[in-house]
Amino acid sequence: xxxxxxxxxxLSRGGPHHVQASGDxxxxxxxxxxxxxxxxxxxxxxxxxxxxVKDPFVELxxxxxxxVTVCPEVDMGLGIPRDPVHLEDWGxxxxxxQFKKGVDHTDRMRAFSRExxxxxxxVDGFILKARSPSCGSRDVKVFPPGSGDRGAIGKGIGIxxxxxxxxxxxxxxxxxxxxxxxxxxxHFLTRIFLxxxxxxxxxxxxxxxxxxxxxxxxxxxxxxxxxxLRSMGRLVAQAADLPTKDxxxxxxxxxxxxxxxxxxxxxxANVLMHAMGYFSRYLTSREKSHFLTLLERFREGxxxxxxxxxxxxxxxxxxxxxxxxxxxxxxxxxxxxxVLDDSGKxxxx
Length: 349
Ligand code: SF4
Prior knowledge:
Elements: H1 3-6, E1 8-9, E2 17-19, H2 26-30, E3 34-38, H3 56-61, E4 66-70, H4 72-75, E5 86-89, E6 94-98, E7 103-104, H5 106-118, E8 125-128, E9 140-143, E10 154-156, H6 159-167, E11 173-175, H7 182-204, H8 207-216, H9 218-224, H10 226-237, H11 244-258, H12 265-276, H13 285-299, H14 306-319, H15 322-325
Parallel strand pairs: 3-4, 3-8, 5-9, 8-11
Antiparallel strand pairs: 1-2, 2-4, 5-6, 6-7, 9-10
Helix pairs in contact: 5-6, 9-12, 10-11
């Protein structure tokens, strides 16, 4: 990633580093997710061995978000290059150790993490470096006390990542490795752009903006969680009886819960079939059959959601279907991010 092209701003050690694309309207700016990203993922050669990790998806994503980069190890005061750290299980807790010299950085890392995270005014999600003892959000090797870097006895969570999940429960947290899987990537992108749009509605602070948000996300919420959709509908119906601040807070709690898990493929397929119903009388039997084949391949996990969505979107444009056009389900995030490639690896969702 070209550091200059992304436009680093405010590169003071210890504070968030903001990376922003410029020139967007206020409306687009409000809908731009605020993402915290591990800095070694293309922004700076800050790994222990002074290397940088080029990640094509992070590179693709950066122009669409307001990126706040962090390197917890460097920002808390370690140098580049430096002796590597790893996690050790001391029985009474997991420690972050520079194992060549046996230096314990756990307390320093926790203090830095809390200060950094408390300093974030708004955030919609995190992309953290996989398997790092500081940033890794799962599957980080854990070693016995006083060991070298061999003979792992289990898996754990990096110290910074653990603080992230404690401070921001319910927010999307992923690693660049998991985001190579198209289903995880679609779910992550859908959530961060949804949360950014909600932040935009909340910033206006009016009941009308919440009603509009809810209306435009009905099909998306139907695919994710029908029960939560009903609860949110009841909340919106009572909007006039609640103070606006409470209304947005309650709604956000439901929203985070509603989109916390991947929707089932069948739920998506039901929403897509419902959408096809708007066009079926205008379509030829070959067009319908092509769509149903795509849908079946999606159900079987052989195609990403973006494939049948692209077909519905083309019909929305062709027939000028205004209701579906207003539904974010059909354009959950910018088209430029709808890449179809996949790691091909099975993942634990
Ligand atoms: S994984 Fe985290 S701590 Fe390690 S170099 Fe990358 S940003 Fe820094």
